[in-house]
Amino acid sequence: MNEKYTLIEKRTIDELHGEVSLLKHNRTGAEILLIDNHNHNKTFSIGFKTPPEDSTGVAHIVEHSTLSGSRKYKTKEPFMDMVASSVQTFLNAMTYPDKTLYPISSRNEKDFNQLMDVYLDAVFYPAMKENPKIFYQEGWHPEIQEDRLVANGVVFNEMKGVYSDPNNRISDMIREKLHPTGTYSHDSGGNPKNIPELTYDAFLDFHSRYYHPSNSYILLAGDLDFDERLDYLNREYLSRFDSEDPDSAIQGHAFYDEAQEFQATYDLSEEEDPAGKNYFAFALTAKVDPTPEDLLLRNFFQELLIESENGLLKKPLQAAGIGEDVYSELSVTNTWDFAVVAYRAEENRYEEFKSIVTDTLARLADEGIDEDVLEATLEKFEFTVRRGGGSHADLISYIGALNTWLYGQSPLDGLELLPLLKKLREKIGTDYYQEKIREFFLEPTHRFFMNVAPEKGKQKKEEDALAAKQKADLAALSDEEKKDIENLVEALRAYQTAPDSAEAKATIPKLDLKDLADGITEIPRTVTETCGVTTTKNPLNTNGIVYTNLAFDMGHLSEEELAYASLLGEVFTKVATENYDEAALETEIFLSGGGFTFDTPVEETNDGYKPYFFISTGALPRQLERGYAVLDEILTKSRLTDANRLKTILEGLKADIANTLLQSGHLIVSNRVRTHFSESAYVDDIMNGLSFFDFVCDLVDEKDYDAAGKKLQRVAEKLFAKDRLTANLIAEEDDLPAAEKAIAPFLASFKDLGAEDYAVAFQPEKVREAFTLNSQVNYIAKGGNFKALNKAYSGDMAVLANVISNLYLHREIRAKGGAYGAGIRIAKSGNVATYSYRDPHVAQTIAAYDGMGDFLRALELSDRDLADMIIGVMNTFDPHMAPAAYGILDFKRFLNGTSKEELEALRNQALATTVEDLRGYGDMLDALMAEEQMVAMGSEAALKETNAFDRYESLNR
Question: Which region, left, alpha or beta, applies to residue 144 given φ > 0 means left and ψ of -120 to 50 means alpha?
Answer without folding.
Answer: beta
